[in-house]
């Protein structure tokens, strides 16, 4: 049966699933792309902070089956430090060189015939360490006498910038209320099913060295520039390939992969290709995690609850190094720093601080998780101060529907939305008043029942120019700015009329191939099976720019816009060819139902494949001046994504969606366990491209957020030793996601994208943690307990209700 072309909003089955369900997925560890590949094992530091006195690799080199062993000397001899997002005297290499700065930091690599031999030989590497005092708490790292991680730096602060927009001091001087809050967001991981994997080969060619590598990395183009800088090679000498299947990422595979450089270097010394596959303990110890943040907020509030000005002091713990793309977590939400609220004056202080923890990177919703935990807890506190219901307080401060496009004081341009309507939908779907009555009855029985609300602006199609804000405007070199939200595609048609679509993004399970097939089939009037999406990536053959990739919810707004533009170009050629076969002009025909047909006489038509065949086989039959070209590329580059201004304003994303979320929690009075009973959510992601996939993204984001809210936290002892296994790092399972869910959608299409779509993969990761925190605070309000940090598992609740402090020494 012929499938119907998938117009936006149509439910279609995922084209990715048959291969996965039948065990025919192509993950990197299943592949053997190069003959004679050796296997690597990484020797890691057991210390959080120590000077390296001596590294002896000789016993390991003599072990049977070992091809090469490299350590700090080989790294320093061949590599430059990785390029950083800003100038800071904190050099970062793929291994430690002078000191180790976190538990799990690579120090040496052993390459052998198989993993068993490599692991055995790794135990023979001898390293003499001089332990140094560690610091893991970001506030302690700020103290003048804190242990200094990088000797050439003045301290542990990598960047410290303050921005002021509007009359902040004046607003606070006139405020009826000044509401303050101190909040702490935890560090937690992405825990994808598939850990990191790399296969790399150093090639000594006649015209110079080159590197080819395979990795399950989904921001491949930024990595090419980093590798080129580290090895001192032209970017054209670096070839990075990504397999079709990736076992999840949730952001963690989009930061810098030091292991690509490390395995390429190992290959240079081994003289053979080298494979390395990360195990779960390595992943939790040393891959990456979202930034933990300490933050202080102040709101200048009028008597009626209107927030007139906001101050935010944000301190991110970026771990041992300022690993690119950090300090992005501080700036990704710069344009939407005021959230869904019309606040005209803002002051922001942004600091990134190094500590003896694993370097940080992207975690689903990065930047937004941290920001909204503080901002939305503060808004509840404002409501309490003014004697208002949290829902009413938010409505009084929302950007209004008639205000769009709305310019925030920090430079964001909100493209579309109807925040009041979305929150009204949540209130109606949850039967909010009935919930409040249920809560009153529960409290009368001495039960802990809470209702929490969070409303967030969901940025998508990131403008990478926000990274420039970490450097003062006067220090930014003219003509060397950064900006952009470009995505590329290539569409071609073969002689039989089969359309191939080469995507410029790297999916990790989101369904990019499914949506791409829908969009192109719709644009060309074809059945779905006549369009073949290709998601494997090769930087040598795929069109790209530095900003390309699938991070920050870029696919729906950017790549689908590029798909439409490329398909439109292709459609014109097919129409010309079809019209030539019909003896009419191209203006008289349309593409529909797999045919080129007359608009006025649909029964008069030729098959799409015949028109394509004419271009391939008989281009001389085309009208004079017509190009016989059946492949088209498009690069969608929205003009709204500019570099940071000289006044430090930036539109940090192209599109801004919206999420309104309500959580209902019940706390067991004996075990103190938090039971999430109900979630009511409304998402506005612009035009819905595929409802099934959108719901999948919502469900996945809710599960991810649940972990960070109630279970997951990468704990470190004061001595710098981290959690490293699932025995002490709790991830939610299906048993913890059985809450009642009411998911609804509102569509306010973006005027800036070709289909009106915005991103939808991260929203609830930003909103649910603080909705749960607001609900727990609401439940415990009669006990006088405030919630200022996450996660909120039973131990934490026990400490809160007993008046003690948590084990990390901080009141939650």
TrEMBL record:
SMART domains: Ald_Xan_dh_C
Domain Aldehyde oxidase/xanthine dehydrogenase a/b hammerhead, chain residue ranges per copy: 22-133
Cross-referenced SUPFAM superfamilies: CO dehydrogenase molybdoprotein N-domain-like (SSF54665), Molybdenum cofactor-binding domain (SSF56003)
InterPro entries recorded: Ald_Oxase/Xan_DH_a/b, Ald_Oxase/Xan_DH_a/b_sf, Ald_Oxase/xanthine_DH-like, AldOxase/xan_DH_MoCoBD1, AldOxase/xan_DH_MoCoBD2, AldOxase/xan_DH_Mopterin-bd_sf
Any matching Pfam family: Ald_Xan_dh_C
Keywords of the record: Molybdenum, Oxidoreductase
Entry protein name: Carbon monoxide dehydrogenase
Native source species: Amycolatopsis deserti
Gene designation: cutL
């Amino acid at each position: 049966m012929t499938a119907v072309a998938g117009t936006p909003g149509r439910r279609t089955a995922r084209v990715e699933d048959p291969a996965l369900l039948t065990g025919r997925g192509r993950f990197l560890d299943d592949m053997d792309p190069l003959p004679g590949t050796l296997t690597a094992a990484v020797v890691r530091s057991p210390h959080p902070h120590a000077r390296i006195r001596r590294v002896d690799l000789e016993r390991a080199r003599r072990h049977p089956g070992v091809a090469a062993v490299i350590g700090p000397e080989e790294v320093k001899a061949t590599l430059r430090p990785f390029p950083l997002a800003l100038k800071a005297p904190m050099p970062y290499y793929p291994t430690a060189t002078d000191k180790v700065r976190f538990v799990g930091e690579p120090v040496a690599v052993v390459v052998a015939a198989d993993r068993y031999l490599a692991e055995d030989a790794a135990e023979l590497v001898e390293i003499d360490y001089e332990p140094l005092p560690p610091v893991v708490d970001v506030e302690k790292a700020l103290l003048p006498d804190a242990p200094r991680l990088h000797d050439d730096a003045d301290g542990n602060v990598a960047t410290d910038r303050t921005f002021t927009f509007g009359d902040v001091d004046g607003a606070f001087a006139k405020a009826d209320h000044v509401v303050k809050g101190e909040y702490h967001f935890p560090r937690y991981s992405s825990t994808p099913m598939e850990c990191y994997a790399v296969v790399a080969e150093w090639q000594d060619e006649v015209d110079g060295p080159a590197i080819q590598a395979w990795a399950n990395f989904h921001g491949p183009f930024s990595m090419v520039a980093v590798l080129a800088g580290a090895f001192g090679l032209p970017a054209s000498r670096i070839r990075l390939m990504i397999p079709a299947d990736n076992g999840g990422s949730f952001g963690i595979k989009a930061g810098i992969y030091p292991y690509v450089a490390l395995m390429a270097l190992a290959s240079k010394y081994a003289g053979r290709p080298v494979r390395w596959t990360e195990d779960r303990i390595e992943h939790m110890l040393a891959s990456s995690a979202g930034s933990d943040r300490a933050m202080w907020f102040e709101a200048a509030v009028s008597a009626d609850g209107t927030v007139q000005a906001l101050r935010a002091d944000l301190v991110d713990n970026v771990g041992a190094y300022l690993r690119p793309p950090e300090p992005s977590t501080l700036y990704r939400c710069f344009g939407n720093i005021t959230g869904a609220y019309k606040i005209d004056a803002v002051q922001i202080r942004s600091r990134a601080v190094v500590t003896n923890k694993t370097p940080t990177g992207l975690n689903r919703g990065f930047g937004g998780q941290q920001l909204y935990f503080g901002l939305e807890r503060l808004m509840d506190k404002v409501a309490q101060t003014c004697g208002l219901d949290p829902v009413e307080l938010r409505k009084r401060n929302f950007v209004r529907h008639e205000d769009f496009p709305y310019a925030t004081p920090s430079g964001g341009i909100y493209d579309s939305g109807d925040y009041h309507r979305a929150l009204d939908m949540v209130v109606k779907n949850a039967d909010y008043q009935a919930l409040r009555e249920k809560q009153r009855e529960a409290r009368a029985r001495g039960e802990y029942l809470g209702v929490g609300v969070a409303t967030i602006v969901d940025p998508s199609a990131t403008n990478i120019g926000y990274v420039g804000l970490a450097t003062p405007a006067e220090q930014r070199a003219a003509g060397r700015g950064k900006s952009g939200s470009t995505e590329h595609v290539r569409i071609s048609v073969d002689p039989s009329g089969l359309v191939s679509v080469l995507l410029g993004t790297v999916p990790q399970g989101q369904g990019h191939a499914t949506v791409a097939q829908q969009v192109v089939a719709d644009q060309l009037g074809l059945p779905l099976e006549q369009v073949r999406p290709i998601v494997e990536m090769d930087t040598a053959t795929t069109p790209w720019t530095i900003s390309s990739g699938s991070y920050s919810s870029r696919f729906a707004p950017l790549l689908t816009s590029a798909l439409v533009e490329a398909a439109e170009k292709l459609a014109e050629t097919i129409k010309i060819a079809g019209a030539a076969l019909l003896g009419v002009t191209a203006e008289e025909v349309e593409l529909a139902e797999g045919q080129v047909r007359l608009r006025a006489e649909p029964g008069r038509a030729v098959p799409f494949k015949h028109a394509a065949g004419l271009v391939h086989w008989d281009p001389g039959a085309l009208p004079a001046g017509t190009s016989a070209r059946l492949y088209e590329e498009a690069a969608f580059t929205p003009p709204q994504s500019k570099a940071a201004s000289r006044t430090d304003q930036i539109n940090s994303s192209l599109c801004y969606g919206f999420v309104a979320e309500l959580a209902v929690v019940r706390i067991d009075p004996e075990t103190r366990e938090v039971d999430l009973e109900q979630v009511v959510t409304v998402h506005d992601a612009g035009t819905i491209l595929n409802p099934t996939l959108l719901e999948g993204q919502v469900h996945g984001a809710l599960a991810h957020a649940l972990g960070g809210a109630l279970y997951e936290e990468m704990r470190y002892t004061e001595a710098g030793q981290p959690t490293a296994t699932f025995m002490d790092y709790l991830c939610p399972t299906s048993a913890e996601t059985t809450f009642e869910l009411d998911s609804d959608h509102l569509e306010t299409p973006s005027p800036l994208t070709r289909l009106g779509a915005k991103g939808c993969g991260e929203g609830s990761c930003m909103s649910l943690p603080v909705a749960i925190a607001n609900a727990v605070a609401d439940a415990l309000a009669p006990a006088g307990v405030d919630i200022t940090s996450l996660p909120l598992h039973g131990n934490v609740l026990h400490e809160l209700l007993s008046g003690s402090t948590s084990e990390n020494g901080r009141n939650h």
